[in-house]
Amino acid sequence: MNKWALLEHKVYSSNSLNIHFDLLVENGKDCLTWKFFKIPLLNQASIEIFKQPNHRLVWLSRKEYELSGNRGFVKRIDHGIFKNVSDKLDSEYCRFILDGELLRGLFEISGNSCRLSKNY
Q1: Quick check: 9 and 103 in contact, CB under 8 A?
Q2: Does this model's pTM top 0.90?
Q3: pLDDT tens digits for 78-115?
Q4: Fewest beta carbons within 10 Å, which of 22, 62, 72, 111?
């Protein structure tokens, strides 16, 4: 169905709180997943992104969730339907048109960088 979600992941540690974002893109039986530390802004410079192990489809529909083992808290902050404009879904290079509130436009991943632009 081509669903995607942007999750804010708060990670607890003994003396600090770390926050990163996970982008999940439906890939049939699971979700391709990437992590980044700041949300890319429209038509701005590329930011660093890191491929993560694929996540289960249930994460596309969860709005908020406390992780077991005191591993943190996850909140969905954006979501929608994507259009793949790459030749195939690939974790190293892909291009999606996203229809969210925070991520709206052409989202391009190339290696360990990503960019959001209006040019599509």
Answers
A1: no
A2: yes
A3: 999 999 998 877 778 999 999 999 999 999 999 999 99
A4: 111
Query: What is the span of the domain harbouring residue 89?
Result: 3-117
How many structural domains is the chain composed of? 1
Q: Long-range contacts for 99-102 (Cβ within 8 Å, ≥24 apart)?
A: 100/4, 100/6, 102/6, 102/39, 102/77, 102/78
Torsion of CA 112, 113, 116, 118, to 10 degrees: -110
Q: What would the pLDDT profile of 5-54 be if each residue is shown by its tens digit?
A: 999 999 887 788 899 999 999 998 999 999 999 999 999 999 999 999 99
Strands (E), the chain: 3-12, 17-26, 31-36, 47-48, 50-55, 64-66, 73-81, 83-84, 93-99, 104-110, 113-117
End-to-end CA distance of the chain: 21
